[in-house]
């Protein structure tokens, strides 16, 4: 429990002022908490659950070992244990549900996949998307060209089958986010932003839709002339705002007096595909795009809680809507989930305000057993929260368009993780508890615009940077990726997370009561504590089948395949931190090998692994290689790698990769 000492809020030297890369600026923002609260973090709750005296000893508490071992069949948590239980030499291959040969963990200039698999480049930054798009010319790029071409820093990937309504696994639409831009890798001789480079960056943000098909040779390609192909950009795509906050004065600007229309979407991280095959795209670190002195004192507390203005980009120097001195309500129009219909190019994307406003990592959505829709979501910042949205209405399987409003009405909940292993879902509803005019909330719109502050007041549990949250409908589980939290106080060490400064992250498992994802109370446990099991100071805990290549740090995205198996991608591994590149690992979630991890795919140097998504038959795994070559001193002219083209005339380029088995069949 808390000892009364406030959570650490002291930022390090600001990388925005030091000229660091976009990726470094984003990592800094996620590492700088904005939660003002002094209440138990998830680490302190875990510590209380498993025993304070053992925490203070800095050793594994017997209660924790007993609890975890009952599920894992024995954890790898020390150098001696790792030596005894690492790899296939001590665990029969037949014991694994995953049957691929493990990939070696390392770092080099290109990508690698497990033996017996192919990993083919499908589409790269600058490749044509819209029919008639110009060829990529990185030396003479324009915003007009970029809006027709594949955007930068691909993240979330979703696949929906063609024709619509089928379960085709060889033909469909691939839907891909473009989260942010790395100017130093995009532009030749880059020194300072200009109106032209800013316009190109805005055009490179957003989302792409492409028609893809698998040929008789097993290889994927995309159709460049498809009428489905399109780009959504921050520069010019008009989007609607719906739900309880639509039209509220706090969403009105000089460009939109109605508060119901907005240009573009920004910092699109992960997302989700709904049961009716629309696509959800998340708006994450929106705060970083704004500058200026706030012109509306009534928004001061709201902006501070979200870190506005972040000042990562100089866009406000060229576009007034990013200057909160001129448009103090513009930030309130970002931080939502966006829904669109991939099958209808004329569909106007919609920001669904009922799902809350925060730094959305994604929104994995399932149909509950009673027909309602449940979306589970993480707010990607240290000491922020885990949420879920439950619709009022039920899925209509006879007419998919009747489902397009389901996400406009329902209840948003935030999680409180208790010491006894239960998790309570607290409704974020105007008039409930402290969500009243006395605390500055005059409507449900106010509550949703300030979702974070509402969750603060309700007593939600501050988490270790919650990112992707993946539901497993088959097993009644939810897996929460907790990437890291270096800001954890030293006295918060404990058996389940014994690090003062959780730099490696962990994976939390929620056991859904009676398979009801809409329920108000579930149970939680720890699946893995990431880090090097060979380092006695790391406090890592893995299942006994984890080899020297199987461990990782910083879990980020996750996907559960159609056989109920968990796959995790990472953001934060490199030569210095873990001696390995980011990539994809497969994790056993039950049985004797529970918590055991096996390495499947790795990225080129400098890259983050994003967007793992399976086709309906599990025959293809699509992944997004984001910011390859992003390393100290790496530039357009002299990148640390020229992946994926390895052409001296082309820069390093983010790209989507299609992974298949050499001989066909299911992945893994």
Structure in words:
Residues 1-15, 51-74, 78-89 and 494-498 have low confidence and may be disordered. A hairpin with a 4-residue loop joins strand 18 and strand 19. 12% of the residues lie in helices and 26% in strands. The chain has 11 helices and 31 strands. It has 668 residues and is α+β, with helices and mostly antiparallel strands. The chain starts with 21 loop residues before the first helix and ends in a 7-residue tail after the last strand. The strands form 6 sheets. Strands 15-16-17-18-19-23-22-21-20 form a 9-stranded antiparallel beta sheet, with no helix packed on it. Strands 10-9-14-13-12-11 form a 6-stranded mixed beta sheet, with no helix packed on it.
Summarize this structure briefly:
The protein is an alpha+beta fold and 668 residues long.
List the helices and strands and how they pair.
Blueprint lengths: L21 H10 L10 H9 L1 H6 L4 H11 L2 E2 L2 H7 L26 E2 L3 E8 L18 H4 L7 E8 L9 E8 L4 H4 L8 H10 L1 E9 L5 E4 L6 E3 L5 E5 L18 E3 L4 E6 L5 E5 L16 H7 L30 E4 L9 E3 L11 E4 L4 E7 L7 E9 L15 E8 L4 E6 L16 H6 L1 H8 L7 E7 L4 E6 L23 E6 L9 E9 L12 E2 L11 E6 L5 E5 L12 E5 L9 E6 L5 E7 L5 E7 L28 E7 L7
Parallel strand pairs: 9-14
Antiparallel strand pairs: 1-24, 2-28, 3-31, 4-5, 5-6, 6-7, 6-8, 9-10, 11-12, 12-13, 13-14, 15-16, 16-17, 17-18, 18-19, 19-23, 20-21, 21-22, 22-23, 25-26, 26-27, 27-28, 29-30, 30-31
């Amino acid at each position: 429990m808390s000892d009364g000492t406030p959570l650490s809020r002291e930022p390090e030297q600001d990388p925005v002022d030091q000229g660091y890369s976009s990726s470094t600026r984003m990592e800094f923002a996620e590492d700088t908490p904005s939660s003002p609260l002094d209440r138990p973090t998830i680490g302190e709750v875990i510590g209380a659950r498993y025993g304070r005296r053992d925490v203070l000893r800095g050793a594994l508490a017997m209660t924790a070992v007993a609890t975890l071992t009952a599920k894992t069949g024995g954890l790898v948590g020390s150098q001696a244990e790792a030596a005894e239980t690492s790899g296939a030499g001590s665990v029969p291959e037949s014991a694994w549900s995953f049957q691929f040969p493990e990939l070696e963990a390392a770092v080099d200039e290109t990508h690698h996949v497990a033996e017996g698999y192919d990993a083919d480049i499908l589409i790269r930054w600058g490749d044509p998307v819209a029919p008639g798009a110009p060829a990529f010319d990185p030396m003479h790029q324009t915003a007009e060209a970029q809006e027709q071409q594949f955007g930068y820093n691909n993240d979330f990937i979703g696949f929906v089958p063609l024709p619509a309504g089928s379960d085709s696994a060889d033909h469909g639409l691939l839907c891909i986010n473009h989260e942010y831009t790395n100017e130093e890798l995009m532009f030749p001789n880059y020194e300072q932003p200009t109106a032209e480079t800013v316009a190109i960056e805005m055009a490179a943000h957003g989302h792409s839709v492409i028609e893809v098909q698998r040929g008789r040779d097993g290889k994927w390609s995309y159709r460049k002339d498809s009428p489905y192909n399109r780009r959504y950009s921050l520069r010019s795509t008009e989007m609607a705002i719906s739900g309880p906050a639509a039209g509220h004065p706090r969403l009105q600007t000089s460009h939109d007096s109605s508060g119901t229309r907005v240009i573009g979407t920004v910092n699109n991280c992960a997302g989700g595909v709904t049961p009716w095959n629309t696509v959800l795209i998340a708006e994450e670190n929106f705060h970083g795009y704004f500058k200026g002195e706030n012109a509306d004192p009534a928004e001061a507390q709201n902006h501070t809680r979200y870190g506005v203005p972040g000042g990562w980009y100089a866009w406000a120097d060229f576009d007034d809507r990013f200057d909160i001195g001129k448009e103090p309500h513009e930030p309130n129009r970002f931080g939502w989930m966006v829904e669109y219909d991939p099958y209808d190019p004329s569909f106007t994307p919609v920001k669904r305000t009922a799902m809350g406003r925060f730094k959305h990592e994604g929104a994995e959505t399932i149909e509950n057993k009673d027909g309602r829709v449940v979306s589970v979501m993480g707010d990607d910042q240290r000491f922020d929260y885990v949420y879920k949205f439950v619709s009022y209405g039920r899925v209509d399987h006879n007419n998919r368009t009747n489902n397009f409003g389901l996400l406009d009405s329902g209840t948003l909940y935030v999680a409180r993780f208790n010491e006894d292993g239960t998790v309570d879902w607290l409704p974020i509803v105007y008039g409930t508890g402290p969500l009243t005019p006395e605390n500055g909330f005059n409507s449900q719109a106010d509550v949703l615009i300030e979702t974070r502050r509402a969750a603060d007041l309700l007593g939600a549990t501050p988490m270790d940077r919650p990112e992707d949250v993946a539901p497993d409908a088959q097993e009644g589980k939810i897996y929460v990726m907790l990437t890291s939290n270096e800001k954890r106080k030293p006295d918060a060490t404990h058996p389940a997370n014994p690090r003062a400064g959780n730099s490696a992250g962990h994976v939390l498992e929620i056991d859904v009561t009676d398979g009801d994802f809409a329920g108000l109370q579930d149970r939680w446990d720890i699946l893995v504590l990431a880090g090097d099991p060979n380092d006695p100071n790391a406090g890592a805990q893995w299942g006994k089948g984890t080899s020297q290549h199987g461990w990782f740090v910083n879990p980020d995205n996750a996907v559960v395949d159609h056989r109920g198996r968990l796959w995790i991608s990472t953001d934060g591994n490199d030569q210095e931190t873990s001696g390995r590149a980011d990539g994809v690992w497969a994790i056993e979630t039950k049985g004797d090998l529970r918590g055991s991890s096996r390495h499947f795919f790795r990225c080129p140097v400098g890259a983050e692994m994003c967007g793992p998504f399976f086709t309906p038959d599990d025959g293809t795994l699509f992944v997004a290689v984001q910011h390859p070559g992003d390393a100290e001193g790496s530039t357009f002219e002299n990148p640390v790698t020229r992946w994926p083209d390895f052409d001296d005339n082309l820069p390093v380029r983010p790209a989507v990769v299609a992974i298949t088995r050499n001989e066909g069949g299911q992945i893994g």
